[in-house]
Backbone:
């Protein structure tokens, strides 16, 4: 299984963890847009981080990461839902840039995490961009928002991403010092991972390499795959937000049809004037909800 995420716990340490590897989905998303290896680096980190957050937060719905800056990243959006379906897109200002530097690319930008449950209220948190990489920025966000020390390390190769998440458990009475020592222990070992190890070893072998002296339980793998949530029905709802006269005029100006292309997967949906007229007629007297 090339694309999967697994939870793990320590029997004698108050720390929880998640580990993720992405190959096929990462390659599919990157190849759809023909991103360079430099652009793939940040996209890969964002995809792995978003999938980790979706599994950690555990909601029926989706988690999205959105980054915008006037420097290099005009727009980066990655999403993952509770079924492990992931997608992403990136619009760089310079698609041929050769050197990757997270701080330079994101200077003056904003990074947001959006949680959208299927039932309930949408929530958005803003992440500071003061650190040297995406993992460190998200560490600060989790540490401050959940008041729990958090460690996130993301490894990106040309065709594979591996991500490691570690978080201290809430302190029990009089255990703050012990919990701190335990967290420092597991993160110190995690810092010894090389890129080659992270990108070639299985989850089991990597955790054994790090924590063979600790009692670690690795739980069943959850598959991750690329799947876009775009659909003709969603496009129809989007078209219905346009005034009928304006919609028909738009079609007339484009040879009797409107073409909508998904920014994530590049799938094209074509609506003829006849189909648009039928759509308008069917929905007359109802309120369009986008």
Residues:
């Amino acid at each position: 299984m090339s694309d999967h995420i697994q939870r793990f716990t320590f029997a004698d340490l108050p720390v929880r963890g998640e580990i993720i590897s992405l190959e096929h989905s990462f390659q599919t998303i990157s190849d759809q847009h023909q991103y360079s290896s430099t652009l793939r680096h940040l996209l890969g980190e964002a995809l792995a981080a978003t999938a980790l957050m979706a599994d950690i937060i555990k909601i029926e719905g989706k988690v999205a990461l959105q980054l915008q800056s006037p420097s290099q990243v005009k727009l980066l959006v990655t999403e993952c839902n509770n079924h492990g379906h992931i997608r992403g897109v990136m619009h760089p200002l310079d698609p041929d840039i050769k050197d990757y530097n997270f701080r330079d690319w994101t200077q003056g930008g904003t990074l947001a995490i959006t949680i959208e449950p299927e039932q309930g209220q949408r929530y958005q948190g803003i992440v500071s961009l003061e650190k040297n990489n995406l993992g460190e920025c998200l560490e600060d966000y989790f540490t401050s928002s959940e008041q729990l020390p958090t460690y996130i390390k993301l490894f990106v190769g040309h065709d594979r991403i591996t991500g490691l998440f570690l978080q201290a458990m809430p302190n029990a009475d009089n255990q703050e010092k012990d919990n701190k020592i335990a967290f420092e222990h597991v993160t110190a070992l995690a810092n010894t991972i090389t890129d080659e190890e992270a990108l070639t070893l299985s989850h089991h072998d990597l955790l054994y390499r790090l924590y063979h002296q600790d009692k670690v339980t690795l739980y069943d793998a959850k598959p991750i795959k690329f799947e876009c949530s775009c659909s003709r029905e969603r496009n129809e709802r989007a078209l219905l937000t346009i005034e009928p006269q304006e919609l028909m005029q738009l079609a007339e100006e484009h040879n009797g049809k409107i073409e909508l292309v998904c920014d994530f997967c590049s799938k094209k949906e074509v609506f003829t004037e006849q189909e648009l007229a039928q759509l308008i007629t069917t929905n007359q007297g109802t309120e369009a909800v986008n």
